[in-house]
Amino acid sequence: MGARAVGFFSIVDVEREGYGSLIFKIGITLGFKIVDVETGKKNTPLKYPSMTIPNYIFNPVLFLLVALLVGPVLVYLERKIAARLQNRIGPYYVGRPHGWLQIVADGLKLLSKEDIVPKDADKLLFNLAPLLFASAAIWAFAPIPLDEKIYIINTDWSLILVFAIASIEPITAIMAGWGSSSKYPIISSLRALGQMVSYEIPFVLGALTPAVFYGTLNIYEIIKFQEDLWFAFIPVIGQISLLLTLFGLFAETNRAPLDIAEAESELVSGFNVEYSGIKFGLFYLGEWIYLFAGSLLVSALFFGGWHGPLLPGIAWTLIKGFILFSIIVFLRWTFLRLRLDQMTSLSWKVLVPLSIFNFLLASGYKVLVS
Length: 370
Known about the structure:
By secondary structure, the chain is mainly alpha-helical. It has 2 domains: 3-53, no CATH class; 55-85 and 114-369, no CATH class. It contains 12 helices and 5 strands. A 3-stranded antiparallel beta sheet has the order 2-3-5. Strands 1-4 form a two-stranded antiparallel sheet. Strand 2 and strand 3 form a beta hairpin. The protein is globular and about 60 Å long. The termini are far apart. Mean pLDDT is 79; it is low at 1-38 and 42-51.
């Protein structure tokens, strides 16, 4: 009886096991299978144990990759949208025909530039600020589910955790301004502090309104409540809450018309004017990542998160996030910057009373319904 040996290997596909657990099983099977020439029967091949990556390792790695890879995409997207609005080409020559490699070139340029620290700077605060700024932007992804089974943190107070992470960014701006020991960064950091105080109230109350309406601070549960109707389409309450949250997001991320902390026509570049090289790049990368995290938060609270037809949940989450990001960029390149007095007046005279009224309206509705 003749026989021949055939070498091979195989990989087991991705499996979903249980609630909230996405398990990657990579089973490597190496060896030989013996095929009988006469009967055509095969023996059982030698199988080595498969490697399992549990969700508490896989999910954080996935979120980190999404946060880091989405930054360059957002930079390119904003440049192209701004170019369209201003009737110019935008990135084009590096990676023609659409400038795909311009972001890579910019990254290499920032990495190769000299790291300059001012002579009188507080070196601890100066060096820590950009790292903490970019890290906080990545942390903001943790409480926001990408899919029904893809998340890092799912607790009853995940929305409060988002507010806590959001408060880190103005603190890092103050650290950068004070640590630079220069007048323009210090002025910018004080403006950032005033802006935070002014717009934190409408931002928090606007984002808390869905939590009051559905009776939970868990972002995951808020998304599940919107399976049939998105909160943005709840009459009056939903639209006012969305408007307040978007205004707060503009202020938190220093986007025009509420970018008075940067104000390049007055303060050169704001609190990061003394930074160079990769530290300067970390501030801008963190700003774009944080803005996209805010877009995902808005999509989770007002537009149903992962809910949508045909496509997987994570696809709908990212699509909604990119659409909201594009809308924010459109508004950023459309409206002029407000003066400092106009910015504070808009908050304290219009948005704060409106947020309190809307919050009480949602609370009264919840009491009447229950």
